[in-house]
Specification:
single chain; 255 residues; mainly alpha; Vanadium-containing Chloroperoxidase, domain 1; two-stranded antiparallel ribbon; 10 helices; 61% helix; 2% strand
């Protein structure tokens, strides 16, 4: 009888659904992507291609499409407050989730909202202290500034500054956090968030490049900053979830 009882308990445990444990927050592949993309961006900066790309759209008389209805109107002025509205919705979803967010735990919903907010604030704060001016401020495009690398901190270029990185592109890239929040249990949804955030960020960044408001590197660095913020938040939240699960298991009395 005792042997039969043990067998029944073992069978019951096998039939119970397994908990979804978080993936390791420091996956080698994600770290490799982050490091490789950093090196590639450094190579782009070193190449000096920013000015070459800017000359595709600008000339000595400026940028012809600066005030175009599509690039300035539809893709800049008309959606300026959209990311903040989405962020408010994500914050509200921590308490009352909707749509796909219902499939996330409260901790992961908080992670998503926090990541998006931090990414937007990080990019805005870097811009606030940047002395790098926009392409349309350069002398060769009809302005008064000279070209100085955005990494030459403390060196003014004679322009208005405050142009690095691309703040408008962060309206898309800030939502890269959705990839990290969903990847632990819903990988297909995570890939959709990743594709959507990248597409939105690059479209908005390209719109600003056409207008002469940013260099290509500004958009690329914004994507990297938002990715790095999302990765760090994901690592911290995953560790907290793992510790909480470990503590809960330790509190279960042995039978």
């Amino acid at each position: 009888m005792r042997l039969l009882s043990c067998a029944l308990r073992f069978r019951k445990k096998l039939s119970m659904p397994l908990p979804q444990l978080p993936l390791q927050p420091t996956q080698p592949r994600l770290l490799l992507w982050t490091a490789c993309s950093f090196l590639l961006l450094g190579a782009w900066d070193f190449s000096g291609l920013d000015l070459g790309v800017a000359h595709w759209f600008g000339s000595a008389t400026g940028f012809a499409l600066t005030n175009h209805w599509l690039w300035r109107g539809a893709l800049h002025d008309d959606i300026r407050f959209l990311p903040w509205l989405v962020e408010l919705a994500l914050l509200a979803a921590i308490i009352k989730p909707f749509g796909t967010l219902k499939q996330l735990s409260r901790a992961r919903r908080a992670q998503l909202a926090l990541t998006t907010l931090l990414a937007l604030l990080v990019v805005s704060n870097i811009k606030l202290h940047s002395r790098s001016s926009c392409p349309w401020d350069l002398q060769e495009f009809g302005g008064v500034a000279r070209y100085v690398s955005h990494w030459a901190w403390g060196i003014g270029d004679g322009g208005s500054g405050g142009c690095f990185p691309a703040g408008h592109a962060s309206a898309g890239f800030a939502f890269l956090g959705g990839f990290f929040a969903f990847r632990h249990g819903l990988p297909q949804t995570a890939r959709r968030w990743l594709a959507g955030a990248l597409l939105a960020g690059f479209v908005l960044g390209f719109a600003q490049q056409v207008r002469g408001a940013h260099y290509m590197s500004h958009t690329l660095w914004t994507a990297w900053f938002c990715w790095a913020v999302a990765a760090m938040v994901d690592m911290a939240v995953s560790q907290l979830i793992a510790r909480k699960a470990s503590f809960a298991s330790a509190q279960v009395p042995a039978r």
